[in-house]
Amino acid sequence: MAIERKRKLDVSSIVPASKLAKVAAPPNVGAASPMFADQASGSIFNRWNGKPYSQNFHHILDKRKTLPVWQHKEEILDALKKNQVLVLVGETGSGKTTQIPQFVLEMMMVETTPSDDKRRKKMMVGCTQPRRVAAMSVSQRVAEEMDVTLGEEVGYTIRFEDKSSPNTVLNYLTDGMLLREAMTDPLLKSYSAIILDEAHERTVATDILFGLLKQVLRSRPDLKVVVMSATLEAEKFQGYFGGEAPLIKVPGRLHDVEVFYTAESQRDYVEAAIQTVVQVHMCEGPGDVLLFLTGEEEIEDACRNIAKEIGNLGGQVGPATIIPLYSTLPPALQQKVFEPAPGTRKIVVSTNIAETSLTIDGIVYVVDPGFVKRKVYDPRVGAESLQVTPISKASAEQRKGRAGRTAPGKCYRLYTEKSFDKDLQSQTDPEIVRSNLGTTFLTMKKLGIDDLVHFDYMDPPAPKTLERALEMLYYLGAMDDEGNLTKLGQIMSEFPLDPQTAKTLIVSPEFNCSNEILSICAMLSVPNCFVRPPKGEARRKAADEAKARFAHIEGDHLTLLNIYHAFKLNNEDPSWCYENFINYKAMKSADNVRQQLARIMSRYNLRMCSTEFGSRDYYVNIRKAILAGCFMQVAHLERSTGHYLTVKDNQVVHLHPSTCLDHNPQWVVYNECVVTSRSFIRTTTDIRGEWLLDIAPHFYEMENFPECEAKRVLKTLYKKRGREMEKSKNRR
Ligand code: CDP
Ligand code: MG
């Protein structure tokens, strides 16, 4: 069998595919016997949509065949035929993400009759991605490779966006979305094969999928699983499946990369990075540059500054095309990084996405400042935050590798060699040991995993983390004393939101403001809607003024609501958005998210209601509803120090500079904590201490409350409350 298939491959590699196409079977034969319409075999008809293959198809096919994984196609498929699970390691860019799912699909098809449409769904291949951007971008590429329309035969599914259809045979989806699918389809019956891609990223969702798939495989002997990874941790994956899964390594074809270190550590890594990029552009030969930075703002700033500096050099240097790449970038702009920029040097400034998820061809120079923005969680204080942290050695090596794909390259590490040796961890910890597991536990419970503590984790979370997550779900009322999901918990798990936001939404009818809370939750689920104009004092000032017009003095949640209302009142007009420095795309997507959430609400008969706008309680009710879900995200202003301390954990935090609050309220509820040079709470709203006693007395009880000013204030409030009750009793 293997030999036969090999011979077939050989033929197609000797005869150019375009020639083969011309001698292929006539149309009616091709259509009637799609068994032979294998892409590699050279039929002129696309088995997926019956249309003749385009010129582009053959053009890309020739290129695809040069990818390293093609040399191992036989071996890979053979191993997968004989085993349920296969672990595949390959250098980034070797074609894992784009090619392997197509190989697997092809293999699955040989065993079914492709014209049998009913079975199509059953043979769907799912390929998970930790990053939304990768799912979108790769599916687009693969649709092109298979010569079909994205959203039809090849699709993608990410939170709040499903671009797949009943015709979809290959779907790229985030690992989180596959977990959610498992909630309604526990045996993953719609898939014949699941590919866990980027397994080395060790996201929480992928880790949980590992455990889940291990169970599912026992009940589904027909299911195939491929675990794909860019790094050597692969042995660990193999071990996890009892060592039975074969491991195939696809050797990369990396060229030498020369590494440079700085002599001293850099105080300002962004500035150092910009200077290095400009230097490379000035002094080095042809080849594109890839600079790793940590986030959207930093990247946009750096892009502007690089452009400015290169501009200042005038005619002394060649032209450059500077391209940002980060997850919240609109898809059309993300695609830009793959487009050639003839006659200029491409300078890509990217987050970690470009480390292993996306491969950009033509990179010869890598500039690596050595930082990444990561989720950090301290279970002792219960706060999860995004922090800029040093990368691991494994990451540094991956980044370096990006420079040597097409030719010998250079990698500039903006830290000292000593620092590389001594300071960098060898591997990044799996996300599960540095996350708040509230959301995950809710999903796991819904998946029917009863014992969260003894689940078959590849790396178990710390006991303290487990405890904190269970405690949180308990306080939110999602779990009872025995650790079972309550009715409320069941409904919470249906929302693709974190538990606090889900709870806010579910209880909002009780505060007579579900319409408004729905809008706020939708706004919180999309990228920042404020546009910061990159250039010009005057434009920036105009943007600030525009923002100030929407500002609600009681807080940022209400400001978001104002903007949503204004957007709807102005008929979702893009030019209105432009004039007001509002991101139109973000608003449209908030509107879409709102509809999706509304559908889930109606499924559970959650009433849509509003307090009368003229009423004094209109905003009060909204603020109370937010608190009802987020009562664990409260900070208190300490009179003695002038600092905010988070409730119960007593961490010093600051209002984020973006806040609309023009005063420092005594109590605030916040949406998230971000840590840069300091800890900031972002999206904050003014609340009243009394509400804490009314809304979350079980959390704000004084016995389990550390000594602090907040506690003293609360005690006074309790006393006052007691006296008032006494008085009213006496009056009666
Ligand atoms: O997954 P892995 O890193 O092994 O490689 P891949 O993502 O499948 O990429 C294989 C090739 O496809 C690379 O040369 C990419 O540059 C190319 N590719 C592309 O041209 N456009 C995309 N949107 C994605 C990949
Ligand atoms: Mg990949």
UniProtKB/TrEMBL annotation:
SMART domains: DEXDc, HA2, HELICc
Keywords carried by this UniProt record: ATP-binding, Helicase, Hydrolase, mRNA processing, mRNA splicing, Nucleotide-binding, Spliceosome
GO molecular function: ATP binding; hydrolase activity; RNA binding; RNA helicase activity
GO CC terms of this entry: spliceosomal complex
Residue ranges of domain Helicase ATP-binding in the record: 77-250
EC number(s) from the headed UniProt entry: 3.6.4.13
Top-rank EC class of the record's enzyme: hydrolase
GO annotation, biological process: mRNA processing; RNA splicing
Helicase C-terminal domain segment(s): 276-448
Catalytic activity: ATP + H2O = ADP + phosphate + H(+)
Gene3D superfamilies from the UniProt entry: 1.20.120.1080, P-loop containing nucleotide triphosphate hydrolases (3.40.50.300)
Superkingdom, natural source: Eukaryota
Assigned protein family: Belongs to the DEAD box helicase family. DEAH subfamily. DDX15/PRP43 sub-subfamily.
The protein, known as: RNA helicase
Organism: Linum trigynum
